Amino acid sequence: MQNEFWVNLPSKDLERTRKFFTDIGFNMDKVHSNAQMVSMDLGNKKVVVNVFPENMFREFIGGQQVTDAKQSNEVLFSLGANSPEEVDAWAEKAVKAGATLYAKPGYKDGWMYGCGFVDPDGHRWNLLFMDMSKMPKG
């Protein structure tokens, strides 16, 4: 566990969260997931994302108010894709599973292709393919 990176998020409905992320293809960590927590691994680097009920998350942050992610945002999660087609496929799966797109798939600056969605708890996610051969130099 040393040097692992974990992201912890609150959820208003843990089962809805579990279903959403399973439906879009995230790998659930069955060892750490239970009735009080959804745990999943992201990407080749195995970044762990843990989702907890809001009351438990509030305890972890010292009793502070939990931000309503549908009203404001502190973080944007970005997931790398291998192609524009992969971005489109992720976007389609996310919407079908209950997400809302806040940015439709498309090109930006001629070398980035991406989109953004909001998960059912209001957390924002960015899907991005970068064509490094077209990235501006200097």
Q: Could you name the key traits of this structure?
A:
single chain; 138 residues; alpha/beta; 2,3-Dihydroxybiphenyl 1,2-Dioxygenase, domain 1; 2 domains; four-stranded mixed β-sheet; 22% helix; globular
Describe what this molecule looks like in 3D:
The strands form two sheets. A four-stranded mixed beta sheet has the order 1-4-3-2. A four-stranded mixed beta sheet has the order 5-8-7-6, covered by helices on one side. The protein folds into two domains: 65 residues, 2,3-Dihydroxybiphenyl 1,2-Dioxygenase, domain 1 (Roll), CATH 3.10.180; 72 residues, Roll (2,3-Dihydroxybiphenyl 1,2-Dioxygenase, domain 1). Helix 1 packs antiparallel against helix 3. By secondary structure, the chain is α/β, with parallel strands linked by helices. The protein contains three helices and eight strands; from the N terminus they run E-H-E-E-E-H-E-H-E-E-E.
List the helices and strands and how they pair.
Elements: E1 6-11, H1 14-23, E2 27-28, E3 38-42, E4 47-53, H2 54-60, E5 76-80, H3 84-97, E6 100-108, E7 112-118, E8 124-130
Parallel strand pairs: 1-4, 5-8
Antiparallel strand pairs: 2-3, 3-4, 6-7, 7-8
